[in-house]
Every structure is written in C-alpha cells, then in structure tokens.
Fold each of these.
Amino acid sequence: AQSVAQPEDQVNVAEGNPLTVKCTYSVSGNPYLFWYVQYPNRGLQFLLKYITGDNLVKGSYGFEAEFNKSQTSFHLKKPSALVSDSALYFCAVREWNNNAGNMLTFGGGTRLMVKP
Amino acid sequence: ETGVTQTPRHLVMGMTNKKSLKCEQHLGHNAMYWYKQSAKKPLELMFVYNFKEQTENNSVPSRFSPECPNSSHLFLHLHTLQPEDSALYLCASSQEAEDEQFFGPGTRLTVL
C-alpha cells in the first residue's frame, strides 16, 4: 500500500528566509505527487504536482517542489517566505484504482509558521 | 474559491438527529469525494463516486450514508452519530482524466 510521511508537525521560519516542508513517499509504481495548502476555516487548495518530466516543479504563490526518486522525497520549497504563507500543508500521492479511479493518500500535514 | 461549494458551513447536532451535508461542484467534473478531517488524524477518504456511481466505501460506518443524484451534487446523510464523528467534512471533485482534486471549504460538524 502506498503511504506519505511528513516528518515535521510544524516548521517555523522568519519572513524573507527560504522554507522547506518535507515529504517522503512509498508507492509500488511511478509516483504521482501533490502538494495542497489549507488556510484556517478553508478547504484544501492545490499548489503543484509531479507526474513526470522535470524534477523541479513550479506551482502557485511562488512555491516549488523537488522530486527525488532515489530518496523517495518530494519536498516543498520557497526561496523567500511570507507571513501570509502561514498555513497547513499537505503532501499527497495518487493511486489509480480500477474501480474508484483517482484516489489520493495524504500525509499528516505540516503547519508552517512564518514570523515577521 | 475553487468552484466546489458545501452547505452548511457549520452544523451542531445531537446524537439522535438526522441531518444532511450538501456538496455542489460547478467544474464539470465526473468524480466526487467525501473526506473526514479530524484534529488528530490525517485526511481520511470516506467515499468516492465516479459518474454518479459509488466506487469506494472506505470502511465507513453505516451511520454515514452518501448520495449522488447527479454528477454535480453529492450528499452525506447523517444519523445517530457519535461525538467522535465531530470533524471537518470535506467534499472534493476531479475530472477522471486529470489528477488534481478540487476541494470545497468543508462543513464543521459538532456532535453533542
């Protein structure tokens, strides 16, 4: 069975500094990987995805993620953090089920706190 | 927002009540999902519908009953819930041929 791990419950970073939110995965086939962000009292918003191709994926709000097959990682990064980036971030891996279709398995989430 | 709406946004109910959560997507997608988000657990997939047919029931108790009358609407009928069912219930949709799921804002459910 596939799984996703986000080893950090919370990441603290100062505004203007680079940020990294970690994600590792375990899948049986080729990984389809996603990052979502959740602001307070809101649903999840899609940030970016890796399906194939370039290992560095660029997404919304200046975020990017690097796919590393040998380390089975898909860490989320941003060169310069903003206070408004403070939110809950979820990594997910897609599994294609012949019956159910597109199914996502989510990590436990990492809370990002950006301080002024 | 993302084109997926959920009502109500907040719901408080007793254990003997019957209520329903509603989800509507305006994106032309053909797959819809119910997730449960609790404070201490990762997002849990509950149900999946593809082309209005339920294709996944992730060992969800029978006190949760989904309904998908058409590809744009999804309901979650609730009856005789337990306090541990209190959570944020998220609806999502996707297009079969694509990968991203688009989420609604959720319904915050409190069971007294």
Note: Residues 94 and 104 of chain A are 5 Å apart (CA to CA).
Amino acid sequence: GDSVTQMEGPVTLSEEAFLTINCTYTATGYPSLFWYVQYPGEGLQLLLKATKADDKGSNKGFEATYRKETTSFHLEKGSVQVSDSAVYFCALSPRTGDKLIFGTGTRLQVFP
Amino acid sequence: DADVTQTPRNRITKTGKRIMLECSQTKGHDRMYWYRQDPGLGLRLIYYSFDVKDINKGEISDGYSVSRQAQAKFSLSLESAIPNQTALYFCATSGDQALNNEQFFGPGTRLTVL
C-alpha cells in the first residue's frame, strides 16, 4: 500500500544553519505531496504542497521538490530560525482518494 | 475565531468509561476526519466522512465509533475506553478534492485513559 518514510529526529540545529528533512514515498499512480508543520500545543497546518512531478512547493523560506524518479519530497530551508522549532510531517494523497497518509514526523529543534 | 474547534482540549478518564470527543467547523467543508497521534507513529486515520450520510472506517477504527450530526459536526466516541487509547486526537476538514486535498486541523484533544 501507499506509505511515507521520513528521517527520524530530533534534528538539532543552530540558528541560521541549513535544514534538510528527508522524505520518500511509495505510491501507485501520481500522488499529491505535502509538508505539514505542528508547532508546540497546536494542530497541524499545511506548510507547502506539490501536485505533479518536478513541481516545487515553497512557503516561509521552506522548499520541497517533487522528484518522481527518486520518489522523494525532501524539505529544505537555507537559514533556520528558533521559531521554526516544530514537528514536520510529510504526507501524500492518492489521486483516486482524499485520504492523507502521513509519515511519522520529524522534530526540529533550533537553538540560538 | 478558529475554523475547526475540538472539545474538550484535555480529558482524563478511567478504563471502561464512555467518552465522546466533539469537532465543529465553520469552513463549510463536506469532508471531515478523525486522526490519532502517537509518538513515533505519526497520525493514523480512525474514521472519515465525505458528507452527512457517508461514514467510512480508516486505518484503526476498532474500539471507536463516530456520528456526523450535521455538515459542521463530527463526533468520535470511545464506547469503553482502554489505556492504549491514550493519545492526542485531531479532527480535520477538507473541501473539494479538486483543490488537492488540503486538510485543515483542529487544535487537538489530549486524552488520557487510566
């Protein structure tokens, strides 16, 4: 079945460091791909998305490119801030359905 | 004002008790979902509903039931709570599938079963 695999955390960085959180997926067909972010004590909110191969989603300095050849959707940011500390979830949605399938989440901790 | 609200935000109960978690939304969405979040397991889908007359089981529906009372309301019940149902529960909504399935989440309910 369809699935999402994320790197385990926590990822610990100093402010202004470069961030990569790896995400790979297994799916039949052509899913849509998402990154959601969960700040402490809150629900998830959409960070960015991509709906077809080679699309790049971007928001708040974060980027991710839909790579069909490597079935990946890695999240990157050039310079992280303390306020980026959160849990990040990669997810996919199959073309034929509406359900989201989530990865296990990666906690990011950014220190000043 | 929040678009997706959940009540209660925190609940502690005992094994065997019946518990209802409620979700309301003002987004006008037809589709609603219940997830649970456990450390190291991410979010897992419990039940989902595409409209008032449609209820579907998700990945982990055993021990849970739901009721879609109206377009705006979707309740999750634990008929006889057990300790391994201790988790963070999220309600979510989404609109037309053509909008690529973005889901909007409530703030969560932290449930502890003793």
Note: Chain A touches chain B at residues 32, 34, 41-46, 49, 51, 89, 93, 98-100, 102-105 (CB under 8 Å).
